[in-house]
User: Fold this.
Amino acid sequence: MQAHDKKISSVVHFIGVGAMGGPMAQRLHEGGHVVRVFDSNPQRVEAFSAQHGKQTELSLEQLGSDADYVVMILPNSGVVEEVLFGQNGLVSRLKKNAMIIDMTSGQPNMTLSMGQRLEALNILFIDAPVSGAVPRAQNGTLTIMTGGEAASVERAEPLLSLMGIVTRTGPLGSGHAMKALNNLVSCAGYLIGIEALIIGSKFGLDPTVMVDVLNSSTGMNNSTQKKFKQYVLSRKFDSGFPLHMMVKDIAIAMGLARNLGVPAPFGNLCLDLWSGAKGVLGPNVDHTEVARLSEQLAGWQIPKSNS
Amino acid sequence: MQAHDKKISSVVHFIGVGAMGGPMAQRLHEGGHVVRVFDSNPQRVEAFSAQHGKQTELSLEQLGSDADYVVMILPNSGVVEEVLFGQNGLVSRLKKNAMIIDMTSGQPNMTLSMGQRLEALNILFIDAPVSGAVPRAQNGTLTIMTGGEAASVERAEPLLSLMGIVTRTGPLGSGHAMKALNNLVSCAGYLIGIEALIIGSKFGLDPTVMVDVLNSSTGMNNSTQKKFKQYVLSRKFDSGFPLHMMVKDIAIAMGLARNLGVPAPFGNLCLDLWSGAKGVLGPNVDHTEVARLSEQLAGWQIPKSNS
Amino acid sequence: MQAHDKKISSVVHFIGVGAMGGPMAQRLHEGGHVVRVFDSNPQRVEAFSAQHGKQTELSLEQLGSDADYVVMILPNSGVVEEVLFGQNGLVSRLKKNAMIIDMTSGQPNMTLSMGQRLEALNILFIDAPVSGAVPRAQNGTLTIMTGGEAASVERAEPLLSLMGIVTRTGPLGSGHAMKALNNLVSCAGYLIGIEALIIGSKFGLDPTVMVDVLNSSTGMNNSTQKKFKQYVLSRKFDSGFPLHMMVKDIAIAMGLARNLGVPAPFGNLCLDLWSGAKGVLGPNVDHTEVARLSEQLAGWQIPKSNS
Amino acid sequence: MQAHDKKISSVVHFIGVGAMGGPMAQRLHEGGHVVRVFDSNPQRVEAFSAQHGKQTELSLEQLGSDADYVVMILPNSGVVEEVLFGQNGLVSRLKKNAMIIDMTSGQPNMTLSMGQRLEALNILFIDAPVSGAVPRAQNGTLTIMTGGEAASVERAEPLLSLMGIVTRTGPLGSGHAMKALNNLVSCAGYLIGIEALIIGSKFGLDPTVMVDVLNSSTGMNNSTQKKFKQYVLSRKFDSGFPLHMMVKDIAIAMGLARNLGVPAPFGNLCLDLWSGAKGVLGPNVDHTEVARLSEQLAGWQIPKSNS
Ligand SMILES: NC(=O)C1=CN([C@@H]2O[C@H](COP(=O)(O)OP(=O)(O)OC[C@H]3O[C@@H](n4cnc5c(N)ncnc54)[C@H](OP(=O)(O)O)[C@@H]3O)[C@@H](O)[C@H]2O)C=CC1
Ligand SMILES: NC(=O)C1=CN([C@@H]2O[C@H](COP(=O)(O)OP(=O)(O)OC[C@H]3O[C@@H](n4cnc5c(N)ncnc54)[C@H](OP(=O)(O)O)[C@@H]3O)[C@@H](O)[C@H]2O)C=CC1
Ligand SMILES: NC(=O)C1=CN([C@@H]2O[C@H](COP(=O)(O)OP(=O)(O)OC[C@H]3O[C@@H](n4cnc5c(N)ncnc54)[C@H](OP(=O)(O)O)[C@@H]3O)[C@@H](O)[C@H]2O)C=CC1
Assistant:
């Protein structure tokens, strides 16, 4: 069997069919693969099997047994490690040359150490975290950053390309690292823009004018373009991506820095302010609400404007 | 005389014909205005009068006397204040309803207080700092942010539009504020991107791949697009805009924050790191060399790559 | 008249008889001087004159006229400048060689520029801010940091020593600088100690044990000794010194740094967090409540303990 | 055998007889215990056995075999884990109820996880890091922070009290946590004091006067008292404790914070600046030289003064 042949249908065990994993598993199914799913949350599994039949449900004990691919998109690398190597860990049941694709926003260093254990067992392993939220998971247009051996990534691409556009970032763990660092840069751009909006609007600048000028000048970034008018000036704060997930991502980036002994004063303050927002506002608010922490610290609210 | 009529030629006293002011004065001259210049550096004045005739030279004592417009682009607001109100200050010689256009990257609060004094004297005053460096000054495509009374800005626009594209930012001082805040957001985007490149490349990511991924994802900003490959990965550091000027701009932004009592922890750390780079590397290096401070702190250099 | 002779009674105009100024003026009165007072808050003046007679009240127009000394302890240097040079400013009424003693926690740079104007008028001027709160004002044991010409400070010492212990810090403004920098070091010691208590107590350390260990080790500072058990672990937060005054002091220190072009990343973050606490908690809470901001950011409260 | 009876001599395997461990092992020997030593550096072992006889040398394979106590003071918790559980790990040879005393400045979370593994093997384990440098190791006056079961700590105290004064900090790991947090508070006090000295001296204050005022006021901390005149104003920078060790300690404190999800913006900036000094100045300079990074950032040196 050539599992990496585009035309051939593979057996995919998909673990974690939550907000992201659900629609992603659906895309693989629609792509012609035999998809079976597992999730610690039974409702998630039922939602999938209601559509695709009871035979798509996997028990914990079945995980891995006949899979060509195990795809995982789970809360974090700790959960991934548990599923692979914990009690009843699926690794013991996997056939040789099966491939594990970890699409979780995970920790590069944990990924590297799991990789070493899996290599010793002749199990292929790549990291392939995604960028883009639920709608892009649904229509298969996620950005997928893949780390791992070139041959492994190549073999995974037919599957991955059903879910999004693949970018190869380098060796194992590099996908996880890139994802976290991208989000760090994004979060910092958001935060400094908010501080600028607070200072400027308190001085008397119209925040809509500010966003327009930033966007047509060197202050432009992804947040000035896609978040400030949409979620902040509108006071809607409804991007759909929760604060705690963003904090997790940039904590991964900064964990990487600490492990490498790289001082990153600016990145760490960014994390501490985002993380502090989680303390003050709660973990489940929209990530764009981090603006409210800056506003509370300043005792000033950026005026609402509909533009 | 309708000085604001495009077809009518005005008498413009242009103060500060340095790297920026020189070509800007040239544009006004080419636009048909009677341009006379002053600069504390006699070579700057000679460079202009060599082309346009001795009669374009102004002495300190002549400054303002027969001007319809005084245009200034000087090192900072302290110099502007000196030129206007210091010993031999030109304000005393200005005719009523003459207009002063301050194109310096200035301090909004000083601009406001000078504005109050000028209003009492019936002298029109706007701030009109520019974004874009020498080449755009030469071909008249600067971005010009104007703050001041709508009627004043309108009257100035025929002149300004010879030098660039005008954006109205609001009341007096708002141009200076906007310019500084834009550069703050830009500098923060640069700095966090550098930290990400250091962490990522030390982990093993290829910096060129990193920049590509950032640019196609939420980590995108003006620096990832226009500075990282060009000046950092190439190790050329030759953007042409010096470090001390950037530090001045973001110091203005943070001075504004302090005056307004707005805590801006992220912005202040940004300033302190840029300002610290000036201490470590010297004021006259290219502003993109701030990356070298982050590298020195990390004991790690982002690998060169030609892409 | 030898105003600096201990035995000789001087005429002192005392401006600002608030929480601190009231008891300090009282000490001068008890020391045998002719003390007359002014305050923009009439109740403050009445409180003094109720005890010492109506003739101790000064009108704004009388300020300075027959004074040997003008002593001021006002909210900030802006108010000092207004009182000296504003409309009805007292400087115009002062006799030559009169001395102004500014005991406000003031801004060194404003002090220096006021000093230049006063020197031109032959008026002596020193800064003499105080450390120690109301009880020490009452019993005359404040720490007084004096900046100014040695001869001037010497002449002021008999008066000052009625209010506290005098330390000469150097030239004009140095008292104000020293006071602000001292409070900066104090605030940073407080803040880092709070972060340590939060981390440690969340890990499982007993905060009382922590404070004891800090105090007997290199982590010792004024706050570990005199504030943590007293105001934090007791959850009393009743030191009596308000948050906004502390924020003002460290804002002065950081204003000094910015004016000198000194990057002070650690000091600026300290200020921004203290200043942010003012935004979140309000200006009038006890300064020790800054701990609550750190707690809110962490989503964790240092356990109460009575030790 | 009652190993915890003061009068009874125990067999102690002492691992890590470096700058600190050497004199500490010596103290145990002088206290009447049978001390045998191991170190990955053979010269360290020879230095000990030259004095106390060849029979005091242990091979890797002998480690643990007949020990009542294993005392370790090693570079970090990673090394401790290797020695206990790595290839040839001593744990396999330890008799039941033997006790391991980890005096390394270690990571509390690693200590906790090692503790779980050791408990399962019926091996007693406490952490007992020390504060105080080589001279205090030599005369047995270290501060020793002990974490672990009360009964275990009690049993260890006769040994520990030969090396210093014991403070019980709580459960396992609490000694390591306390030590790291104490050093964090100490490092922050040092750093803010340096920034204050730079700002103040650039303004014109005499640094000696500054230190005196801080010491007699609320700015007082361990560094103002014991380090600023001694090592900074003297420009000697010869405290004897290297930079990389201090950075390790505060990295442990901040690792704890990150593991607990506690944002500690001030602590993290402290770490990043200390860590950045390591990058700029090298790991082996005296820890007091961190002042030089602040000076380089400021482009200003605190004047030398002999006081
Ligand atoms: N949401 C988004 O927009 C994006 C998310 N991501 C990343 O994708 C990952 C998943 O996110 P998302 O889908 O939103 O999260 P969800 O919480 O919606 O889905 C995760 C699912 O995994 C389940 N799960 C948890 N533990 C286990 C376990 N041990 N075994 C099996 N299943 C388990 C969860 O169950 P339970 O509910 O019981 O915990 C849940 O159903 C995260 O790493 C996130 O950072 C990346 C890009 C965008
Ligand atoms: N360079 C750039 O790319 C950009 C610059 N700017 C801003 O434009 C302004 C000017 O910058 P730039 O042209 O590069 O600087 P330059 O130094 O080249 O030009 C400034 C000129 O002003 C002169 N000057 C100084 N003091 C006085 C005085 N009292 N009276 C008259 N002339 C005086 C200077 O003379 P001397 O040489 O003797 O000091 C110099 O010739 C600054 O505020 C800068 O921040 C904005 C955007 C881009
Ligand atoms: N409180 C303390 O423990 C310490 C305070 N300080 C410093 O001492 C100074 C005074 O503090 P404190 O006494 O507590 O403050 P208070 O507010 O109690 O006293 C200040 C007094 O000045 C008055 N005032 C304000 N403006 C004017 C004016 N233009 N002319 C005359 N009087 C005016 C105020 O009146 P109104 O009420 O109308 O504003 C008030 O009565 C501050 O600079 C503070 O930082 C220093 C060490 C300790």
